[in-house]
């Protein structure tokens, strides 16, 4: 097989040209918020005080076992390290006491039973929800790092995963009899709603491809996705430069005992109920497929857009034809709650 080197170079040139024309890969204004996150994370750990032990009863392969861990310090990820390295790499989420989905890097509060969830189990719907919520979060990180300041970008929110299908409309599950992967599709995309200064922004195929490449690069870095519950006052300081987040924070805190759950990947922060998958390395094939203008609620200098994409976990492999079907479905306008709907009425839908 002979590769057309000129075509390959042309394609790469077009991608880089698109990025230079419309985007800037350097992060902007995120370092201070990330420092606040780190300081609060350190403060909470130091406030634990006297270390108390808890018993964590692990249920699963290679065998059930009981681990003695540290209350408010040890996480499911720490437990996975005791069980085996591959469980650290493959586990997307934990299930506490057989009922509560739990972030892998979230400290455990009490003695409990623990199961580690991944994307290849016969019933992975809980992990699927975390996967699609995480994809929306990571898309926000890529968008925040990519647009130039003059674009006037603000991240607004991302809707919660579809509760019936597990993940913005796509559910992956293993067929244990045929030893294959099956896919059920409903709405077909993950979403992040943004605001731009430009009224008629219509990204080219090359620009969308460039954003897809940035998602893959983020996955290859295998960065941890961290969770932290903070006061509404600190959350307002973290998101001081985003008027839409500042508007959302009081309502979010009001439904969560005055606390706001913040997630971090790299230096990027966002608000989400969670849980999310443990690291970016669990993201596999990914396509940022569409941008839809949302006319209702837009005003001069602030125009809403719904960014959409489709992705697969890194352990899932499907053929080109099947993936192309998913890509085509993901381009249709996702019917989830729109960002311009009254926030008080739609907070549960808008903040995943």
TrEMBL record:
Stored SUPFAM superfamilies: ThrRS/AlaRS common domain
GO molecular function, one term: RNA binding
Gene3D superfamilies listed in its UniProt record: 3.10.20.30, Threonyl-trna Synthetase, Chain A, domain 2 (3.30.980.10)
Pfam families referenced in this protein's UniProt entry, alphabetically: TGS
Coiled-coil zones: none
Annotated Gene Ontology cellular component terms: mitochondrion
Occurrences of domain TGS (ranges): 73-117
Stored InterPro entries: Beta-grasp_dom_sf, Pro-tRNA_synthetase, TGS, Thr/Ala-tRNA-synth_IIc_edit
Superkingdom of this protein's organism: Eukaryota
Protein name in UniProt: TGS domain-containing protein
Organism: Anopheles culicifacies
